[in-house]
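We emphasize that the prediction below concerns an isolated chain of 277 residues; any contacts that depend on oligomerization or on bound cofactors are therefore not represented. The input was used exactly as deposited, without trimming of termini.
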Amino acid sequence: MKLSRINRLFNPKSGKCFDVAIDHGFFNEYTFLQGIENIESSVKTLIDANPDAIQLTVGQARNLQSVPGKTKPALVLRTDLANVYGPDLPEVLYSRMIEEPVLQAVRLDAACVVVNLFRIPGAPEVTDHCIQNILKLKVMCDYYSMPLMIEPLVFRPNSEAGGYMVDGNIKLIMPLVRQAVELGADLIKADPTDNVEEYHRVVEVAGSIPILVRGGGRAADEEILERTFGLMQQGAKGIVYGRNVVQHANPGGMTKALMAIVHDGATPDDVIGLVKK
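Result of the prediction step, given as a token string:
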């Protein structure tokens, strides 16, 4: 049953989840490698900081799953890759899913799989690829009782913000999140909105499906902590952050600070000292 795996993702006391995404090497983008050049070291640092989950690819999952012990973070397995993130996009864009994604997830003892749902201005064919991926993945996930996390991403035009910049327009985020629900998501990793105080509307449109908010591009410590605190107050069930953790000078401290906000209701002022150490 899916619930047994979902329970591995969520803290038993708070009912919330902090998933650290370090699957960026999948996407063949130089800037994404900063902070995770030595993936084995990055995973070790994160295990020591003890988030609820770490998001990895089929080629890197061994760096988490080969570590002995019962208390390490759960594995969230990335199942798709795309070429849509560079500042200069190629002529042909794609999103492709790995072969037998759920069987690979089962073999790796993953607690969840994740797949993208892109909305890219001028590239409807990539949205079509994503939907086809999800339709195939949903059936397999149900058969093997593997939770399905769908990641709706609203891009800004590449000419305006090349290199994968999020459009925080709530009128674009809400319908894409709802489409993820309609496609059968068990969990949703969603964009933050420009106005954090509106985020309860995104949570509402997802209904009973937990919303985990993605971190997006690198931002200042104070901004990340304030935004995270505000999102949790708006009803988010957790966060999925990557670059704002692994590209930080103190990734362990940032992880602990975010964990305190997500699970303990700590304020940014309470935890800023953890980040500065």
